[in-house]
UniProtKB/TrEMBL annotation:
Residues 109-235 form the N-acetyltransferase domain. It comes from the Bacteria. This is GNAT acetyltransferase-like protein. Keywords: Transferase. It holds the Pfam family Acetyltransf_1. The keyword Transferase applies.
Length: 235
């Protein structure tokens, strides 16, 4: 994980800190009494290194660690104690080298930051998108940062960010109108908003569901590298 900024690896180590209740070469289970109710069970699988499961102490007491269970078996045993996980998200970040290339890059002429004065443009943009696309992208004009791509004076793609988990990580969502896809707009707007995040001393974070192949392809084309996947208890 040395390819990533220390703030990223430190964040995830802190999220999964606790008293070790079980561990082998593939997974470590910790118990943390400070977990919020909606974070009472979380799983992190990184590209490098063993997986991690953190739970509240009461869940740790109820879990069965006999027989050297692997992560898939631990997931099943969580369901035995009425814990269902939401379904993992990919986690993408810029490596240090990719960050340096991004920061050395100039802005694209057709991409700019959006403000509240762009409300009419933004409303016209969202009215042209489907409800499912809007829900999946979670791009909002009142987020911490918002950038848009324009074609012939029309807003055709947008990305927004908000600080995530009370940290310096900034979670990004992106949406391109269907008839304007395949033109590189999403890549340009993601890189623009991530460059802005770095200038504001935040670390860009890109999350998407495991089966969203188009979003995975976008993350990679924008220069991000897969760090791992994160899952959390479903409510």
């Amino acid at each position: 994980m040395t390819n990533y900024a220390a703030v990223i690896t430190d964040f995830w180590q802190t999220m999964f800190r606790g008293d070790v209740r079980y561990g082998d070469e593939t997974v470590t289970v910790t118990a943390n009494p400070d977990l919020a109710h909606d974070r009472r069970a979380m799983v992190l699988e990184t590209v490098e290194g063993p997986a991690a499961l953190v739970v509240t102490p009461d869940l740790a007491e109820r879990l069965d660690f006999s027989g050297r269970p692997d992560l898939s078996e631990l997931r099943r045993r969580l369901s035995d104690v009425d814990i269902t996980l939401h379904g993992a998200d990919h986690l993408f970040y810029f490596t240090r080298a990719a960050r340096d290339r991004l920061l050395a890059e100039g802005p694209a002429d057709h991409v700019r930051q959006l403000t509240r004065q762009d409300v009419d443009l933004f409303d016209a943009f969202t009215s042209s998108a489907s409800e499912s696309d809007l829900d999946d992208a979670f791009v909002e004009l009142d987020h911490w940062a918002v950038f848009g791509v324009f074609e012939d004076g029309r807003l055709v793609a947008a990305a927004s960010m908000y600080p995530w988990q009370k940290s310096t990580l900034a979670d990004v969502g992106v949406l391109t109108l269907p008839s304007y896809r395949g033109r590189g707009h999403a890549r340009h707007v993601v890189r623009a908003i991530c460059r802005y995040a770095y200038h504001q001393r935040h670390q860009p974070q890109y999350r998407c569901q495991l089966d969203n192949d188009a979003s995975v392809a976008l993350a990679r084309s924008a220069g991000l590298t897969r760090f791992g996947q994160w899952d959390v208890v479903a409510e």
